[in-house]
């Protein structure tokens, strides 16, 4: 199981280097300067699968993810030139994005979860097992790098983005698809936490999962972090964070045996769905271009 220290020390904000303050729980911290948020959990990839139903998780997420991936590629397309040929997806999961992107790019994926890696390789996809950037050869270069719901799980986002800068070719594009702290469900979860209702807040941080969320950015502080790592944001977008198809399985996969609670939550989201589509999404899309100048030290 995942653990967090009983009294975790607040680390400097990776976006502006301001000392973070304790947030809404002992494991939660917020930067008072730029509003970046972090959690101090540990990673248990490859150690804790028994509590989760991976097949149910895949059923719950596939329709949403594939729809969002098509939209991501559509938004990316105007920024592409003939030189953008090789694409790397970090944390490629089941390979759903790679399958779509292979229609335009020569694709490679990296996946640290051994179980999911085997599922992707069984489809014949070019996937490497391990963590970024250690799983790459030092000389490998890519024209496009994509993180689909991955950056928020990585302990050191600054080091990861610097590694992206080193592995991208000149003019290379970095695509980040990740949760935002300005999204409707996250804002409501924080309100609930202040009222003593922990469940939604902890679920959005994926507390107790093998790979929990460690960061929540917004567009402003993420752009600041990217700039310090040698990138310039060239486009922003949003993606739907829920879809009715597969929604019940998505709710239920992490906590089996609670059909009444799952059914009530599913019904509440069903009733709210027409309104949710017009309110701030919990999934932001950021496209950044690699700058030739070296990143700041």
Question: Could you please describe the fold and organization of this structure?
Answer:
This protein is an alpha/beta fold. It has a single domain, classed as 3-Layer(aba) Sandwich (Rossmann fold), CATH 3.40.50. The strands form 2 sheets. The protein has a 7-stranded mixed β-sheet, with helices on both faces. A 4-stranded antiparallel β-sheet has the order 1-2-3-9, with no helix packed on it. The protein starts with 20 loop residues before the first strand and ends in a 7-residue tail after the last strand.
Concise account of the structure shown:
The chain is α/β, with parallel strands linked by helices and 297 residues long.
How is the topology of this model organized?
Blueprint lengths: L20 E2 L5 E3 L6 E3 L14 H23 L9 E5 L5 H6 L4 E6 L2 H9 L4 E3 L12 E7 L8 H11 E12 L4 H11 L4 H6 L10 E2 L2 H10 L2 E9 L7 H6 L6 H18 L6 E8 L7
Parallel strand pairs: 4-5, 4-7, 5-6, 7-8
Antiparallel strand pairs: 1-2, 2-3, 3-9, 8-11, 10-11
Helix content: 25-40%
C-alpha geometry: globular
Structural class by SSE content: alpha/beta
Counted by DSSP, the helix tally is 9
Query: What is the CATH topology assignment?
Result: Rossmann fold
Give the second-level CATH assignment, the architecture.
3-Layer(aba) Sandwich
Number of domains: 1
Low confidence ranges: 1-7
As laid out across the biggest beta sheet, the strand order is 6-5-4-7-8-11-10
The CATH superfamily label reads: Vaccinia Virus protein VP39
Strand content: 15-25%
Order of helix and strand elements from N to C terminus? EEEHEHEHEEHEHHEHEHHE
């Amino acid at each position: 199981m995942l653990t967090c220290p009983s009294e975790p020390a607040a680390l400097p904000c990776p976006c502006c280097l301001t000392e973070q303050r304790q947030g809404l729980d002992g494991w939660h911290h917020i930067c008072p300067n730029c509003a970046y948020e972090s959690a101090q959990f540990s990673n248990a990839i490859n150690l804790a699968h028994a509590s989760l139903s991976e097949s149910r998780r895949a059923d719950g997420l596939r329709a949403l993810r594939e729809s969002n991936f098509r939209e991501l590629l559509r938004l990316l397309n105007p920024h592409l030139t003939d030189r953008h040929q090789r694409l790397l997806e970090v944390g490629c999961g089941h390979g759903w994005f790679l399958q779509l992107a292979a229609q335009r790019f020569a694709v490679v994926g990296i996946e640290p979860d051994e179980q999911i890696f085997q599922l992707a390789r069984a489809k014949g996809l070019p996937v490497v097992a391990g963590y970024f950037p250690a799983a790459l050869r030092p000389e490998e270069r890519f024209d496009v790098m994509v993180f689909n719901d991955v950056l928020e799980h990585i302990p050191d986002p600054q080091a990861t983005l610097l590694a992206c800068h080193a592995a991208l070719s000149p003019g290379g594009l970095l695509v980040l698809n990740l949760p935002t702290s300005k999204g409707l469900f996250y804002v409501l979860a924080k309100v609930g936490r202040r009222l003593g209702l922990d469940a939604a807040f902890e679920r959005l941080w994926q507390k107790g999962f093998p790979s929990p969320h460690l960061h929540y950015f917004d567009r402003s502080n993420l752009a600041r972090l990217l700039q310090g790592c040698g990138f310039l944001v060239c486009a922003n977008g949003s993606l739907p964070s829920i879809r009715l198809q597969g929604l019940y399985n998505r709710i239920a996969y992490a906590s089996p045996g609670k059909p009444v609670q799952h059914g009530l939550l599913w019904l509440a989201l069903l009733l709210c769905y027409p309104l949710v589509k017009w309110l701030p999404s919990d999934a932001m899309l950021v496209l950044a271009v690699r700058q030739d100048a070296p990143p700041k030290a």
